[in-house]
Every structure is written in C-alpha cells, then in structure tokens.
Amino acid sequence: MPNSKFTDIGPHNAPKLYQKVANAIVASIRNGVYAPGARLPPERDLAQEFDVSRATVREAMIALEIRGIAEARRGSGIYVVDAPPKDTNTPELDIGPFEVTEARRLFEGEAAALAAAIITEEEIEKLSGLLQELAANTDNEAGEKADRNFHITIAEATGNSAIARVVEILWDMRYESPMCREMFDRARNAGVQPRHDDHLTIFNALKSRDPKAARRAMHSHLDRVIDSILAATETDAVEKARSEAASKRMEVARRSAI
Amino acid sequence: MPNSKFTDIGPHNAPKLYQKVANAIVASIRNGVYAPGARLPPERDLAQEFDVSRATVREAMIALEIRGIAEARRGSGIYVVDAPPKDTNTPELDIGPFEVTEARRLFEGEAAALAAAIITEEEIEKLSGLLQELAANTDNEAGEKADRNFHITIAEATGNSAIARVVEILWDMRYESPMCREMFDRARNAGVQPRHDDHLTIFNALKSRDPKAARRAMHSHLDRVIDSILAATETDAVEKARSEAASKRMEVARRSAI
DNA sequence: TAGAGTCAAGTGGACAGGCCACTATGACTG
DNA sequence: CAGTCATAGTGGCCTGTCCACTTGACTCTA
C-alpha cells in the first residue's frame, strides 16, 4: 500500500506500479510535455513526482526502453526517442512492420502452397478450431494468440521444421522491434482487425488441397495487412509519414507485380 | 564491474546487465530449457544463478514481460507465456539439411524473384564479383563464404531487412544443427560442389531483371543441392538411410510439383 | 475418507539507502 | 579563446527489508 499518487486497485490483474508510471510518462510525451529528443526529468526527481521509489522509476524506464519510447544514457539522463535511427546495425530494431509483413507475404504464401499439397486431416481440424477461436476473439490477446497459432500451424503442416521456425521468427520480429509494435498498436487503435473472411478463404484452400489457391489466399490476406499498416500510418501520421506511405504504395505496387 | 557471469564490455553502447540476463533467459526458452507455460526459477534463484542482484533480475523480467515472453504472477512465480504447442524437441537441433534446403528453396526462390524486379546496378556488380570469387574458390572456406555472400546479397537486393534476415538465419541453421553440419560434410567428402553454372544462371536472370527466370533458376539450383544431399546420403548410408532417401525422393517429387 | 480451514513457506512487488562509473558543466589558467 | 580539471548530477547496480499474495501441507470434522 504505498502512499503513491496512483489508486490502489488490488492484486487481481491490477497493473503494476511501474506500468502506471510508464503509462503516465507516455501520456506526458503524447501530450507534448516532453518533445522527441528531450530529456526526461532525472530518475530521482520522477520518483519524488510520482511518490514511488527510484527502483520503480527504473523499472518504468526499462519498460519505455523496451517499447522504444525512451533511451537511458548513463551519466547523462533519459531521453525521449526520436524517430528510430535508420542506419543502425541491429536488424531487429530496424525492421519495420511493412518489411516483416512483406517477408511474411513471400514466405507464408509458399508455405501455404506446400502445406496445401500435404496437409493432414488432423491439421485441418486443428485449423478449424483455431478459426472458431479467431471468430470468438477479436481485438484481444486471445485473438492475437489464435492468429499466430493459425499461421504457425499452416507452416507446421509443411512437415518442415525450418519453415515453421522461419514463420515463428517472423511473427516474433513483431515483438522484438519497437517500431513494429508501435505500428501494430496504431493499427489496432485505428480499429483494424484480422479479417475472418481472409482466414476462412485460406482454410478452404487448404481443405481443398489446392496449392495455387492457398498461395493466392495467403497473398491476398497479407496484402490486406500491408494495406492496413499503410492506412494506420496515414490516419495517425504527420505529413512526412504520409509522403513515405505514398511512396510506399508505389513501391508496393511495383513489388507486388511479380 | 560486478562479479557476474557476463563479460564486462564497457560503457559505450554496452548492453546493460538486465538485457544480458533477459537474453540469456530467452536463449534458454528457445533451447527448450523452459517450455511454454512452464514456471521459471524464482527471482532469488535466478539472481544466484546469474550472480546479479535480485533487482537486476526483476528488471530483466520486466523486459521479458514487455516483450510478451514471460508473465510474473505475484506470490506464484514467473511463467513462460504460452505459445502454440510444439514438440519438446528443439527445432534448431532437429532440423535436418533437407528441411533447411527445402525452406531455402521456397523462400530464396521468392526473394530472387523480388530482387530481379528491383535490383540495382551496384548489386549486379557485387554479385558479379562474388561469382568470380566462387569460380576461384571451390571446396574451401573462402568459397563457402562467397556462396553465402552471393545468396545474402540477393536477399539484400530486395531492400527488405526482414527477408535478408531470414536468409541469414537459414544459412546459419546449417551451423547450429549438428545433423546439418555432418550431412554437408558428407556431401563435400563425396565430391559435391556448388555448381558454378547454377549461380551463373541465377546471376543472368537477375541481370535481365526477369523475376520468373530468377525464381526458376534459384529453384533449380536448390533442387540440385537437395539432390546432392540425398546422393551423399546414399553413397554413405546404411540401408535404413537408403529407404529413407528413396521415400524422400517420392516426397520431394510430390512437394516439388506445386 | 473427503472436504474445509488454517498456517507456514515460498513467491513477486515495492521500498530505502548506498556506492560506482560516466557525463556535463563551470571555473580557472595559459 | 581553448584546454584542463574538479565537481555535481546522472544512470547502473547492489544489499537488505518488508508487505501481500499463492501454494502446499497438515489437521479437524462430518
């Protein structure tokens, strides 16, 4: 029961104190209290401001750091992240949602075609169950888990562990890249949801054991995901991001023509 | 300079201790030490195991929590977040050379097609230089490095970091899997070499900016790699491996038909 | 014998205080 | 005005502590 400025909700799935502090700081950033590139108040000052311990502030800072929102520099301070630098050497941090989804389009399309050639009845049934889970869970964590399961089950239906592993890695790239997570959060906030029809079309192609139809359905599905990424950017962006999205559209059109 | 089990790199962009602990735990999860749904060792035990403070372990757990990898439950423990149920086998150790090469066939075929659509003159020249390196270096480490560079340069020519990353990961799977390494050693001992003609065909398709020809050439190249894997098995194998190779041939024929 | 209640141990959440190492800034000197 | 140095301020990591929740073992009663 700390005497902090946050309401004490209780144990059951109550957000932890560091999460409350982190969210309060995110709100301040979004409200323009701290501009990108600006330095946040020092840890000790934030601890006093929020009436929590310095360790709790440090935990909140770690949460912001993992989310790609802030960056702590020893001896200097904590800074609001500018737009993520483009030319760093860490691929995971550099990989945007468009790139991840385009890679998924190429690779999961082929995985779906191969799966359609050899899929078992058990795997068909498993996918059917996942479709029901998806229908029952939209826009929540269970739905996202079912979405992931759906795609990875298709990859596993190829009977090839390397293919399944690659699809898992591409899914996990979404969580490892702060840029990705932020954009998928934006897409969700803009009301974008996994389209049940798309998944059903994929499922039907697999059930019919039609490789070409499975590839086409997976391509269409991920084309729409790419569209929603670009749409989310447009609905939430400054002018620069708009022009980037526009040039992305042209580039997407060119790349999708193959 | 704590006496922890991690090497002290130094201040300049050195990863923080909590990051090292978090990554070590992620590696353990990926290696199957902790299955999805399993409980991790308690914070105090992990602190002893990694020879860091409990606060550092808590910070690492927050990083894993934000990344969606683990979930801390007060009074109960820290649990690996559920994922789609998988065999308890570790995928990397289980992945054979056939699976890796088949995955490469699917994915690098598509990468080559996309690269053919948008490749630059610089990348064409770089590939030309790598072809010369390949011609000058057969059956040695420099040749293998040039082979890897050739394929990764094609992936990078797509302009998509996620695609390039996946191709790198597939290449590196060869080294991480003892089964893979042994088989590629066998292929080399049986006199199997990367075919220069194949690489030249791929290069010419890229130079002509012909996506279909690039996909076809990459498929043919990797089909021959698969053939050589099977041939090496046959020339070096016990009877069981022969029947496996024979059934693999039938399976390969079925899978390649899509 | 099974179920309910109790209690202790084990667990994570949060805190206080401390020290180290790095960075930034200001004062001083040449 | 540039360079140097000292100091204050900063984040990184630590130790120790206490609180609140969960879990499992044990006991008692029907």
From TrEMBL, chains A, B:
Entry's transmembrane regions: none
Residue ranges constituting the HTH gntR-type domain according to the UniProt record: 15-83
Highest taxon in the source lineage: Bacteria
PANTHER family given in the database record: TRANSCRIPTIONAL REGULATOR, GNTR FAMILY, UXU OPERON TRANSCRIPTIONAL REGULATOR
Example GO molecular function: DNA binding
Matches recorded under InterPro entries: GntR_C, TF_FadR/GntR_C, Tscrpt_reg_HTH_GntR, WH-like_DNA-bd_sf, WH_DNA-bd_sf
PROSITE patterns attached to this UniProt entry: HTH_GNTR
Name used for this protein in its record: GntR family transcriptional repressor for pyruvate dehydrogenase complex
